[in-house]
């Protein structure tokens, strides 16, 4: 049976693996790490860094599991747990994400923090954890930010208008395999916001470009292609996201490998839509950048 | 009333409280006839009805979008910051549909047949047939939304095979089908939000159901950012809140998946059906340490190309690539030659457990089996395999640090899906009028075992096509007097929720919520997991009660109630799991047979397969809450099989 108390010691049995299959890799030694974590009690409150020593971190842990262990300790000590958004812990829901030493989602390419494992770090390192910092993503608490601006951009036009029941037979419209693959590559975005956090301008061009490219690559997305580009860009600007100035930090930070050509596609679609609409850009923020 | 040992499960006697409303007549006409017989709400009247959707996974998002399109006034709430983060997003493998694009003999009837048989004859035939019928329209809808399904070079849709079927009927978008389908439903929903027809309530957790004059009329929700308890009035409430796999603590479910909405509804009168029917998925990444916070599934689609094996001798020390074929036991192919590696999940999981328990397992702990792609890579080339499963291989490598292109994956079963859920009739309405339950949260379509790629199909069938039709029976068929949020029932439900929060914060004990949750999970896995016994289940019921008592004395929650407080959120969910777990164990205890994912060691065939007792247990068991601390009452809905003959399932 498990010990009633669960703490940070690696010998602690809390939930010693349901499968009764614990005791993995006994000879792997733990890492000694120092964490500097942004603590902020609430939106608009004054924040500061707090330092925590982590004496014995298993290299097989995920980054969030390390924070779980730290939170167990903090609660037992009577302190408040560190708030961070997370859910699936499989890198697909897009809930998690914060800066580790200035890098969105940390040092591994195409890896969310929930899939980042401690074997990527060396003993003795100091890790600075900060929330996404962007005008359009207000900090709610500690590492937890509000990304609802992303939903509002989708509501502005990130869809195909097709009511349930009115769809034609699925194979009636052939979609070339390359188009389907290209659409998928863009649609793989998880809306984590790393692109915005990594961008010096806090731009959401990669996020918006991915949606515009996804639907624009498919025959089903053509009818609303122009209006989609115009309204999504307008919404993006209204939410306070900055412009793209071709740093491509977003591409480097993206855990799903969304590529820069999605930004180019957005620029093309926006420019063409503006010309075809015969009016001035509705956007006030300099268009799609 | 059921005594603890329960040889008493009433056989054929159905409960009058469980009128399934399943139509009769030829099965292929039932759904269309039923739709014709249902009342309608005229377009101009729809906006007068307020529908509240709780949960925005596949079932909730598709229902919310469709009801808003129809003209109802809809509100949708979710515990996530964005509706797109619901756990449907993590479904990997695919979605079934009886399109028969492969010309390999598929049909609506075959999908119906496979699903009833795969569920080990514990689902309602009428519901399953409807699901199979609707499956084809789901694919049409999703394609029209821009879901980027896999395609052949000619531009047609591609298919692959899943367990429990001998045809290729699974549509997929690489290993991220759930994500793409959810984004389709989410975009449909956000279009309605943008057009002002749908109110979005993110960061809300339903903590009470409000029932007035016997009808569901709204919920109390906690705003997870501000802590404010909100009253939401509705003419119908749709629970689309997923399954309860996290009662095991370790499962493939997302961390925030929980039973609270269902359990709160249960305590207000919704019967809970077959809680012991749980799916243990055969291919998950094994547990690596005490800090493990969740388990990661590897899609069943991998069994199209991966071969499952273990060494023939115990204590084999060689590396897998050095073990020649003659020393390998491809035990699924050996035992089940017709289905081979693609046997249903319950069968594959039990086989893995049996081999590991017998001492043939591999890995540091001896609790894993190989899933090997060597032969597929030799046959098709690494590029082809990468194209099909690239993201899954990458995920595996990230978690384990091992390269599955070079060494076989190591897998072990883990809790994945729950077939049980709130009891619903053919209209998906629970025993509380006006409360509809969709998707994994209900019990209706998968019996005792769900086939791969059928969860996505059911969630979307319920949301896009079933409830939008059946909800009219309630809205047009009942008199729904106007209620508002200052009704005494709202005040009372809010007070209950506020009291719970106050109690949690006042306990100031010594243990974290997670430590209790882990302890509960371990207990559930040991006694209510892949193999259950009457003795173990009796023990579990006692220990769950003890653990619950300790929880209510000794938890410690930091912080306060009027801000983001994730520990407080967890406390509410674990408190409900601790009550629900006892019902789960009781249901497993009383069901003295084995069927699908419910395996009682006392009841097995000589070959070790699940042995059903159709004389005494060919029914759904639906539990009624009768008051705090009082035993639940077990009601029975007999299941009749007119079209798929009751037989011992065989995949040999």
Note down, in words, how this protein is organized:
The complex is a heterodimer of chains A (289) and B (652). Chain A has 289 residues and is an alpha+beta fold. Chain A folds into two domains: 31-130, Beta-grasp domain (Ubiquitin-like (UB roll), Roll); 147-160 and 175-277, Alpha-helical ferredoxin (Fumarate Reductase Iron-sulfur Protein, Chain B, domain 2). Helix content of chain A is 30%, strand content 11%. Chain A has helices at residues 63-76, 148-155, 177-187, 194-198, 205-216, 225-238, 249-253, 261-277; strands at 31-39, 48-57, 99-100, 103-104, 126-130, 139-141, 144-145. In chain A, helix 5 crosses helix 8 (261-277) and helix 6 (225-238) packs across helix 8 (261-277). Chain A starts with 30 loop residues before the first strand and ends in a 12-residue tail after the last helix. Residues 1-27 and 283-287 of chain A have low confidence and may be disordered. Chain B has 652 residues and is an alpha+beta fold. Chain B folds into two domains: 16-277 and 419-614, FAD/NAD(P)-binding domain; 283-415, Succinate dehydrogenase/fumarate reductase flavoprotein, catalytic domain (Flavocytochrome C3, Chain A, domain 1). Chain B has helices at 30-37, 43-46, 58-70, 108-118, 125-145, 177-194, 260-267, 331-335, 345-357, 374-380, 382-400, 455-475, 488-507, 513-528, 534-554, 566-590, 614-617, and strands at 50-54, 73-77, 95-96, 170-171, 198-201, 204-212, 215-223, 229-233, 236-239, 272-273, 278-284, 307-311, 328-329, 369-372, 409-418, 421-422, 435-437, 619-624, 633-638. In chain B, the strands form five sheets. Chain B has a five-stranded parallel beta sheet. A five-stranded antiparallel beta sheet of chain B has the order 11-15-14-12-13. In chain B, strands 16-10-18-19 form a four-stranded antiparallel beta sheet. In chain B, a hairpin with a 5-residue loop joins strand 7 (215-223) and strand 8. The longest helix of chain B has 25 residues, at 566-590. Chain B is globular and about 75 Å long. The chains are: A alpha+beta (289), B alpha+beta (652). At the A-B interface, helix 1, helix 2 and helix 3 of A face helix 3, helix 5, helix 6, helix 11 and helix 12 of B.
């Amino acid at each position: 049976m498990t010990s009633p108390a669960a703490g940070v010691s690696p010998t602690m049995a809390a939930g010693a693996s349901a499968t009764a299959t614990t005791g993995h890799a006994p000879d792997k030694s733990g890492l000694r790490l120092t964490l500097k974590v942004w603590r902020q009690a609430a939106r608009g409150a004054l924040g500061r860094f707090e330092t925590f020593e982590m004496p014995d971190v298993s290299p097989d842990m995920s980054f969030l599991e390390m924070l779980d262990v730290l939170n167990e300790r903090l609660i037992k000590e009577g302190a408040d747990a560190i708030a961070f958004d997370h859910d699936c812990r499989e890198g697909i829901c897009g809930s998690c994400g914060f800066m580790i030493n200035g890098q969105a989602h940390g040092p591994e390419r195409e890896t969310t923090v929930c899939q980042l494992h401690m074997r990527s770090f060396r003993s003795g390192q100091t890790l600075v954890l900060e929330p996404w910092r962007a005008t359009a993503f207000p900090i709610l608490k500690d590492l937890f930010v509000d990304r609802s601006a992303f939903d509002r951009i989708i509501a502005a036009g990130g869809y195909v208008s097709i009511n349930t029941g009115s769809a034609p037979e699925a194979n009636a419209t052939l979609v070339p395999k390359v188009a389907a693959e290209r659409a998928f590559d863009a649609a793989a975005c998880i809306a984590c916001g790393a692109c915005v956090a990594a961008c010096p301008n806090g731009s959401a061009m990669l996020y918006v470009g991915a949606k515009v490219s996804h639907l624009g690559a498919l025959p089903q997305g053509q009818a609303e292609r122009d209006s989609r580009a115009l309204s999504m860009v307008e919404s993006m600007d209204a939410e306070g996201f900055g412009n793209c100035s071709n740093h491509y930090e977003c591409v480097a930070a993206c855990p799903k490998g969304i590529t820069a050509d999605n930004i180019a596609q957005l620029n093309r679609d926006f420019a063409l839509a503006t010309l075809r609409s015969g009016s001035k850009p509705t956007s006030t923020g300099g268009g799609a950048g | 009333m059921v005594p603890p040992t329960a040889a008493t499960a009433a056989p054929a006697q159905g409960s009058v409280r469980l009128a399934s409303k399943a139509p009769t007549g030829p099965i292929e006409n039932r759904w269309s006839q039923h739709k014709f017989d249902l009342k309608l709400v005229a377009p101009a009247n729809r906006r007068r009805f307020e529908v509240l959707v709780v949960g925005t996974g596949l079932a909730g998002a598709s229902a919310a979008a469709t009801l808003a399109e129809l003209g109802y006034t809809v509100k949708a709430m979710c515990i996530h910051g964005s509706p797109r983060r619901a756990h449907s997003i993590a479904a990997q493998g695919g979605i079934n549909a009886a399109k028969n694009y492969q010309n390999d003999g598929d049909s609506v009837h075959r999908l119906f047949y496979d699903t009833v048989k795969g569920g080990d004859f514990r689902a309602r035939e009428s519901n399953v047939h409807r699901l199979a019928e609707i499956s084809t329209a789901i694919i049409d809808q999703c394609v029209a939304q821009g879901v980027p399904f896999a395609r052949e070079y000619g531009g047609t849709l591609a298919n692959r095979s899943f367990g429990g079927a001998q045809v290729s009927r699974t549509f997929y978008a690489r290993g991220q089908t759930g994500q793409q389908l959810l984004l389709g439903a989410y975009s449909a929903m956000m279009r309605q939000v943008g057009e002002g027809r749908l109110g979005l309530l993110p960061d809300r957790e339903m903590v009470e159901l409000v029932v007035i004059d016997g009808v569901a009329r709204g919920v109390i929700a906690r705003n997870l950012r501000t802590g404010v308890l909100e009253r939401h009035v509705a003419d119908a409430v749709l629970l689309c809140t997923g399954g309860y796999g996290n009662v095991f603590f370790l499962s493939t479910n997302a961390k925030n998946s929980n039973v609270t909405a269902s359990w709160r509804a249960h305590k207000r009168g919704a019967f809970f059906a077959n809680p012991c029917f749980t799916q243990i998925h055969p291919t998950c990444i094994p547990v690596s340490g005490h800090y493990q916070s969740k388990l990661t599934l590897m899609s069943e689609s991998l069994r199209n190309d991966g071969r499952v094996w273990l060494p023939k001798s115990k204590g084999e020390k060689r590396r897998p690539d050095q073990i020649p074929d003659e020393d390998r036991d491809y035990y699924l192919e050996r035992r089940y030659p017709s289905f081979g590696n693609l046997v249903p999940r319950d069968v594959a999981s039990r086989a893995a457990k049996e081999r590991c328990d017998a001492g043939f397992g591999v890995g540091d702990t001896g609790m894993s089996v190989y899933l090997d792609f060597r032969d597929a890579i030799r046959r098709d080339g690494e590029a082809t395999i990468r194209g099909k499963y690239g993201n899954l291989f990458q995920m595996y490598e990230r978690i384990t640090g091992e390269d599955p292109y070079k060494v076989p994956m190591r897998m072990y079963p883990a809790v994945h899906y729950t077939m049980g859920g709130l009891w619903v009739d053919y209209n998906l309405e629970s025993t509380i009028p006006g409360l509809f339950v969709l998707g994994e949260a209900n019990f209706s379509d998968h019996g005792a075992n769900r086939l791969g790629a059928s969860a996505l199909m059911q969630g979307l069938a319920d949301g896009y096509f079933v409830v939008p039709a059946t909800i009219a029976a309630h809205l047009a068929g009942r008199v729904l007097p106007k209620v508002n949020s200052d009704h005494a029932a709202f005040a009372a439900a809010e007070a209950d929720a506020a009291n719970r929060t106050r109690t949690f914060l006042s306990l100031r004990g010594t243990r974290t919520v997670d430590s209790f949750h882990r302890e509960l999970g371990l207990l559930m896995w040991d006694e209510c997991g892949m193999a259950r016994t009457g003795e173990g289940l009796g023990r579990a019921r006692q220990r769950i009660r003890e653990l619950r008592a300790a929880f209510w004395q000794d938890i410690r929650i930091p912080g306060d109630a009027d801000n983001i407080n994730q520990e407080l959120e967890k406390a509410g969910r674990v408190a409900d799991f601790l009550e629900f777990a006892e019902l789960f164990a009781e249901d497993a205890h009383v069901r003295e047979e084995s069927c699908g994912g419910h395996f009682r060691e006392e009841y097995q065939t000589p070959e070790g397969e699940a042995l059903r007792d159709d004389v005494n247990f060919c029914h759904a068991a639906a539990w009624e809450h009768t008051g705090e601390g009082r035993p639940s009452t077990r009601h029975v809905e007999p299941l009749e099989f007119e079209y798929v003959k009751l037989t011992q399932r065989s995949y040999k």
